[in-house]
């Protein structure tokens, strides 16, 4: 009788080796998943920052189409600072002028402090042509705005 009781008690729970194996597997999975997750977050933060300054292009073209220049930053229809980026502009003063809209990204360490620059050309053949450039790594930048 005593032998059967001992066997039943010995079979309860997990052994230390089994628990160590489970912890090792979780550690390996976490070491793979965390960098992938950080990259995904960085890419989404860059896309969101680009989305915040893109409407500025339309507003600039609308102002210039009406024959007006950009008198104040509020004419761009953008805020100077958002949760995603600090926004500035340069050169967009008179109708038809070349200039830039720049977003300095606020995000995780992979993209924090990097910039997205929308540039308007003054080329008379293609008025209002906008280009985009960024200092963000190409693997995190949106396809409309190639990175470095």
What does this protein look like?
The protein has 148 residues and is α+β, with helices and mostly antiparallel strands. It has a single domain (16-134), classed as Glycoprotein, Type 4 Pilin (2-Layer Sandwich), CATH 3.30.700.10. The chain is 40% helix and 16% strand. It is built from two helices and four strands; from the N terminus they run H-H-E-E-E-E. It has helices at residues 2-10, 16-65; strands spanning 85-90, 99-105, 115-120, 130-134. The protein has a four-stranded antiparallel beta sheet with strand order 1-2-3-4, covered by helices on one side. Strand 1 (85-90) and strand 2 form a beta hairpin. The longest helix is centred in the N-terminal third of the chain and has 50 residues, at 16-65. The mean pLDDT is 86. The chain crosses the membrane at residues 12-37. One of its GO terms (biological process) is type IV pilus-dependent motility. InterPro entries: N_methyl_site, Pilin, Pilin-like.
């Amino acid at each position: 009788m005593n032998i059967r009781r001992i066997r039943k008690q010995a079979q309860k729970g997990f052994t230390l080796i089994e628990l160590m194996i489970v912890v090792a597997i979780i550690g390996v999975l976490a070491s793979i998943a965390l960098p992938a997750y950080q990259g995904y977050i960085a890419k989404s933060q860059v896309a969101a920052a680009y989305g915040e300054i893109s409407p500025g292009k339309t507003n600039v073209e609308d102002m210039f189409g009406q024959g007006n220049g950009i008198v104040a930053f509020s004419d761009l229809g953008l805020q100077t600072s958002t949760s995603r980026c600090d926004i500035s502009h340069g050169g967009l003063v008179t109708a038809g002028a070349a200039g830039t809209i720049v977003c300095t990204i606020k995000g995780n360490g992979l993209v924090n402090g990097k910039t997205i620059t929308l540039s308007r050309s003054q080329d008379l053949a293609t008025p209002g042509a906008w280009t985009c450039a960024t200092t963000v790594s190409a693997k995190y930048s949106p396809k409309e705005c190639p990175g470095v």
